[in-house]
UniProtKB/TrEMBL annotation:
Similarity comment text for this entry: Belongs to the peptidase M1 family.
GN (gene name): Acey_s0009.g766
One record GO biological process: peptide catabolic process
One GO MF term attached to the UniProt entry: zinc ion binding
Region Disordered: start-end pairs: 150-171
Native organism taxonomy: Eukaryota, Metazoa, Ecdysozoa, Nematoda, Chromadorea
Protein name: ERAP1-like C-terminal domain-containing protein
Residue ranges occupied by any ERAP1-like C-terminal domain in the UniProt entry: 30-145, 185-378
Any single Gene Ontology cellular-component annotation: extracellular space
InterPro entries in the record: ERAP1-like_C_dom, Peptidase_M1_aminopeptidases
Length: 383
């Protein structure tokens, strides 16, 4: 007999008590809330999780994609509130190198990212990142085979290219294509149609998380891609949405690593592309790229540029700029102090747009690091 706990609380303000089910089956795995049709979480006792782990290792596809997503989501949620030990969670993840579902990997990625953030700068963070990188490595290689532009496809089809002398990325991005313009054109249209798909979003998000865990080839790969697909391809009067031919879900991370590794030259390139761009989604990617600068002076400059009326940043995008900069680890050094020092400038820029002001405050206060900063903020807002 093993127990199933339904209605697992992840918010201590919930009033509903958990429901326990005693199941008279010890060897066969039993899953509650198959396909996630119910709005509740569930946990299992040691025997229940052991049976599930065994089944996933033997044949994970007996469970639907949504069911596998739910199992992993529930396991991480239970572990975060102390209802399940992380050893069981890691045993559950042993099968995932065989997992093909972008949806399931999205949950795995989120869970691993939460663990890494929990450890912060503690020594265990190194172990957490190494574990995550190793678990995600195989899928990362598979996904990044799709980092290819239309020009790269044309080169492989025997057509000339102006940038053949630029080194290829470290990841294997080769895709065999027949020497036929008609087929290339058809595949290009199919690719454009799939750019905005959910799987593309999941894959782009996955690679961004994977690169945060520290694999060295991310830097060299996306720096090279930036040089070839952005720096050398886009002229001073070009829009990124027209001149950058990378799949959309790889553009944000390409802009980011270009700015991070190539410095000021790449930053100015991305800034110029932002000013010319009229596609909203592309502007978001470019904003994210600018926020990856590694110098405090460059990041502060972006915030000041956003607040200045002549900076070229629309007032509706200012909060997005602050949010993007705030997730850069370098920003921890100055976000709170910047809020305090530039408070009058922030108020003047928004002219009573309190929702926007609130967004800036939230972006900055997420980096509170000391009692001194808390006291300064308390005085500023008269808490």
């Amino acid at each position: 007999m093993f127990k199933v706990l339904l209605g697992l609380e992840t918010n201590h303000d919930l009033e509903d008590e958990p429901l326990y089910l005693n199941i008279e089956r010890e060897e066969s795995p039993l899953i509650v809330n198959v396909d996630r049709n119910g709005y509740f979480r569930q946990n299992y006792d040691v025997r229940g999780w052991k049976n599930i782990v065994k089944q996933l290792k033997e044949d994970h596809e007996v469970y639907s994609e949504r069911t596998r997503f739910g199992l992993i989501s529930d396991a991480f949620a239970a572990a975060q509130i102390g209802r399940l030990d992380y050893e069981t969670v890691f045993q559950l993840l042993d099968y995932v190198p065989k997992e093909e579902s972008s949806l399931v990997w999205y949950m795995v990625k989120n869970g691993l990212d939460t663990i890494a953030k929990f450890y912060g700068n503690e020594p265990d963070n190194i172990w957490a990142k190494r574990y995550a990188e190793k678990l995600m490595r195989k899928r990362a290689k598979r996904i990044t085979r799709n980092i290819t532009s239309k020009e790269q496809e044309e080169v492989r089809a025997g057509m000339p290219s102006k940038s053949e002398d630029i080194p290829s990325p470290v990841f294997d991005v080769s895709v065999e294509e027949p020497n036929s313009r008609k087929i290339l054109s058809k595949r290009s249209e199919e690719h454009k149609a799939s750019d905005s798909s959910l799987n593309d979003f999941f894959d782009g998000s996955f690679i961004e998380a994977y690169c945060k865990f520290g694999p060295k080839n991310c830097s060299s790969t996306f720096r090279s891609v930036f040089e070839k697909e952005v720096q050398h391809r886009c002229g001073d009067n070009d829009k990124a949405s027209q001149c950058v031919r990378l799949p959309r879900h790889f553009r944000g991370i390409t802009y980011c690593y270009g700015v991070k590794k190539l410095g000021g030259i790449a930053l100015e390139k991305v800034k110029n592309l932002y000013k010319l761009e009229d596609d909203e989604e592309e502007k978001k990617r470019l904003t994210k790229g600018m926020s990856c600068a590694s110098k405090v002076s460059e990041l502060k400059g972006q915030l000041l540029n956003a607040l200045e009326r002549t900076g070229g940043i629309r007032i509706s995008d200012i909060v997005m700029v602050f949010n993007s900069v705030s997730v850069n680890p370098t920003a921890e050094e100055f976000m709170v102090n910047f809020l305090i020092e530039k408070w009058e400038m922030i108020i003047a820029r928004f002219r009573g747009e309190f929702k926007q002001i609130e967004g800036v405050i939230n972006a900055c206060l997420g980096k509170l690091r000391s009692e001194g900063q808390i006291m300064l903020v308390s005085v500023l807002f008269e808490f």
